[in-house]
Amino acid sequence: MKTNIEDAFMGTAKARHFLHEPAPAMTPVPRRERSIARANGVPRIAIVHDWLVTYAGAERVLEQMIACFPDADIFSVVDFLEDRGFLRGKQAKTSFIQKLPFAKKRYRAYLPLMPLAIEQLDVSGYDLILSSSHAVAKGVLTGPDQVHVSYVHSPIRYAWDLQHQYLKQSNLTAGMKSLIARMALHYMRSWDIRTSNSVNHFIANSAFIARRIHKVYRRSSQVIFPPVDVAAFNVCEEKDDFYLTASRMVPYKKIDLIVEAFAQMPERKLVVIGEGPDMAKIRAKATPNVRIMGYQPFSVLHEKMRRAKAFVFAAEEDFGISVVEAQACGTPVIAYGKGGALETVRDASEAEPTGMFFQEQSADAIVDAVEAFEDGTVTFKPADCRKNAERFSNARFREQFHAHVARVAPRFVLPPLPAEPEVQVEEKSDLRVLAVDQSGSLGGAELSMLEVVKNMRGDVQTVLFDDGPFRIALEAVGIKVDVLDGKALGNVRKDGMTRPGAGVVGGVVKLLRGTLEKSRNADVIYVNTQRAMVIGAIAGLISRRPVVWHLRDIVSEDHFGRTQLSIIKWCTKLMLEHVIANSTASAAAVTALTRLREERLDVVFNGISAEPFTSIETVAQHELRARFGLPQDAFLVGCFSRLARWKGQHVLLEALRECTDMHAVLVGAALFGEHEYEAELRAFVLEHGLADRVHFLGFQDDIAACMKAVDVVTHTSIMPEPFGRVIIEGMLSKRPVVATRAGGVTDIVDDGENGLLCAPGDAAELARILDRLKDDSPLRDRLTESGFVHATKRFGTERYVESVERILGDVAAKAKKRERS
Length: 821
Hints:
Elements: H1 4-10, H2 13-20, E1 45-49, H3 57-68, E2 73-76, H4 103-106, H5 114-119, E3 128-133, E4 147-152, H6 163-169, H7 176-196, E5 201-204, H8 207-217, E6 222-223, E7 243-246, H9 255-263, E8 270-273, H10 279-285, E9 290-294, H11 298-307, E10 311-313, H12 321-328, E11 333-336, H13 341-344, E12 355-358, H14 363-375, H15 382-389, H16 394-408, E13 432-437, H17 444-455, E14 459-464, H18 469-476, E15 480-483, H19 504-519, E16 524-527, H20 530-543, E17 547-551, H21 562-575, E18 578-581, H22 584-594, E19 601-603, H23 611-614, H24 621-628, E20 635-640, H25 649-658, E21 662-667, H26 675-687, E22 694-698, H27 703-709, E23 712-714, H28 725-732, E24 737-740, H29 745-748, E25 756-758, H30 763-775, H31 777-794, H32 797-820
Parallel strand pairs: 1-2, 1-3, 3-4, 4-5, 5-6, 7-8, 8-9, 10-11, 11-12, 13-14, 13-16, 14-15, 16-17, 17-18, 18-19, 20-21, 20-23, 21-22, 23-24, 24-25
């Protein structure tokens, strides 16, 4: 007797009738049939998801499903989520794969077992089963009295029409491994067809996927577009002179074609955001007019999307969330005219166009489309782009999804769609802050200041004494920046080893005049670095504005010359209203120098966002190593700071002579007149035959990716460190940390609990610790787990920003009170 699968392949009339007709469960169930619903008709609901390892497009759909049915239980093959906010605290019931070796990082390797795994999830106690499926979730076993509605992102792509592409990308086109892979995919296809028959109702995320569902399963489906958080994006009417593309760098996204196209148009600028296994190939094709930014946090991506002339998209996607996000920013789209983009972008053939299409995935086709866009024949209005994007909002998805489930399951009394939670509009503070920093570079002090000013509720303006990446980062998050000419202070070193030039006085006057002008509209001046403190303190004295110094140094003779210490002492005692120290070590040093009263000093540990680290959790380490040109099979020890003698990179190199089976990765550049030290490091490497084991990566934008590419993160400062931001970043990257036992480091690391400590400058002890870590995998795992928990709980950004803002507000309020009295 033929099975349904055989009939489907043979194309018999009986099979065609079976596959096109609704399943019996689609009609109302007669009263005499058993129902497992509650007495009031409210169904027990289960939501089944493929796997929970990150927050991406499929998880956005899951998030909104839970918003529709908040009492539902969640099932998944595995659940390794770190950030569980979108699940509303729910814990998924998982399969046996959850406990298999290396499942957390290599869960995809268990794909052949996933059909079996999903069938072991017991949903027999539920009336209504909702699955969110791009792989196996729709195959969960259900009974005749249960209604199963499956939202399909796509039938298993790599088992169906994209099989040959995936085999080629995985180098499985020939040989025994290829044969095994093809047999596994053949089994997946048979299983996929069979389990489609147990789904009562299909929902497709686009008409494109609806056609794929009909092609594969011979079933009809309702189209409900996936949700896009349109509200998180703001329209920008003024566009800058650059194009943008943003995506994970995998072959089918075709980012390489976009880069090739702009290489042929040197007069056009392209910004590329994202990372992935194709990063090295894409970087190799980039020309000077193409800026590869790698991974960027949402704030930077948002700003680039708002400011771009157009968003370029060359993939054949099922839907394409980034295309809608760009339009939500008022930015038109230049897209490949196939797949989901045809449903999300309106071209010139429609009213209120929001973009244009090219008909071939080639660099030449992209060039032609960009030139046509530049011709200006078609006018694209930001308001039209935003209006089109609103069709795909979260609220629209919830309304359509809830209504559709109610329509196809009429025997159940569904709970009403919960009211959209009121957005808690954060009360806007009337505090006006002038933030001052001496640097245009993105060092630790600047990154910590950036975290404060971008999250502050009040009005913030910033003055910098130099231009550079810090200015760009501030503007990317909407902070107004004025850059003053601080070149005259360029040779003034805090250690007092160089004498100021003749132009210093004039330079100071110019900086003071510019800062003073900006300070008159501020309630408080917030200074971030030593030179900025001196200028800010004088400006505050003249303008009668209180000044708060965020101290990120240990003000002792180890770090500063006598003249500098004297200036710091008297400015602090006479001109500053308050000091915020970033560690107990910094606080102790400034108290010893100035005898500052306790009420004028607070210790606030820096807060560091975990987002850049958790967002690349699923990126394989070998991909990151390939991106930075690092060896795949070596044990890599990373050191992350500017190249400066007191930062102690030479200690790591000396330890490397003892650790002959390790490599060192030095990330950072020589900044403040320290190029001589960099030359010494490179000479040491050559002299001792370490050239093949030491990798100088220079300054890098994406520290999270760099850290995840190594096996151990080291902090090697030979003098007390004011804080040690890199240590927390190492913990957030889930790498074991080795640090020196001095200064602010002791506020962060509990030796043996969340990291390991060694004596400053002791290369032999550092070598012994590194050897121990290399040989003791359980120790590395324990330090990694404990360190991540410690970093997220104690050094989160929310507490940090609130503390700084409270201090600034209190200081400003006291100053106003004094004025009134």
